[in-house]
Amino acid sequence: MKEIIEHYLRSNGFRTFCPKAVLFDMDGVIFDSMPNHARSWHEAMKQCGIQMAPREAYVYEGMRGVETIRLKAREQWQREISDEEAQQMYEVKTRIFSSCPPAKKMTGVESLMRHIKSCGMKIGVVTGSGQHSLLQHLEQEFPGLLHKELMVTSFDVRQGKPNPEPYIVGLQKCGVNPWEAIVIENAPLGVRAAVAAHVFTIAVNTGPLSDRQLAAEGANLVFKTMSDVEAVWNQLVSLPVPHPSVCHE
């Protein structure tokens, strides 16, 4: 673990690693919602005349919905679609998603959050989602752990993942620097965004993609489950850093 942290510091030109906040993605990390998203994307795009296999939802996961639609339309229709067209198509996807069974909490995530909270760290959420049916339940489902003022959604940014803007905004909301945070992601584009924001990034592979795809985007650690992350948490956040008395670049 020490070598992994040292590599992160060297790669980003930082002197210290002293995490004070953890930024969680939502879909596939907090809620087991990706199967619903995959089915909804496939059916909605089919209705709109665009081919999108369910597996592709995992490839584009983290990207704002309208941006995913623009990308697929550009690929298959060879033209740019208007904001209005993209929004109308996204509303089809939203309606289908809203009719899906409620997504359950991801196994082990609440225990991990309580562990993080016991360490005195802040917990934020950074998601590309604009699905009100999930967002409105975050505080209700995780009382005392998640708070609206520390959430970043598609409504808070101009550019979604893989652009680093969502995680930069997440850092700002938590009042921390990149070397004072950890990101927990499950999607290649989300990992890319977090790495571009210079945050230590843990990937938890909860979908059908390979560990290799997450590591290739720059994830510092890759695990299979939230319980695996919790098992090493104390080791990760308690390791000595080069200058433990001061946290700055």
State which percent range the strand residues make up: 5-15%
How helix-rich are the residues, as a percent range? 40-55%
Order of helices and strands: HEHHHHHEHHEHEHEHEH
Q: Assign an overall shape.
A: globular
Tally of helical runs = 12
Total strands: 6
| Largest sheet entry | 6 strands, parallel
Coarse structural class: alpha/beta
- Kindly state the mean pLDDT as a whole number? 92
Q: What is the first-to-last residue Cα distance? A: 21 Å
Strand line-up of the largest beta sheet: 3-2-1-4-5-6
Radius of gyration: 18 Å
Weakly predicted, low-confidence segments = 243-249
Structure, described:
The chain is α/β, with parallel strands linked by helices. Helices cover 46% and strands 10% of the residues. It has helices at 2-12, 34-47, 56-59, 65-77, 83-98, 109-118, 132-135, 138-141, 165-174, 188-196, 211-216, 226-238, and strands at 21-24, 122-126, 151-152, 181-185, 200-204, 221-223. The protein has a six-stranded parallel sheet with strand order 3-2-1-4-5-6, sandwiched between helices. β4 (181-185), α10 and β5 (200-204) form a beta-alpha-beta unit. α4 (65-77) packs across α5 (83-98) and α6 (109-118) packs parallel to α12. The longest helix is centred in the middle third of the chain and has 16 residues, at 83-98. The chain is globular and about 50 Å long.
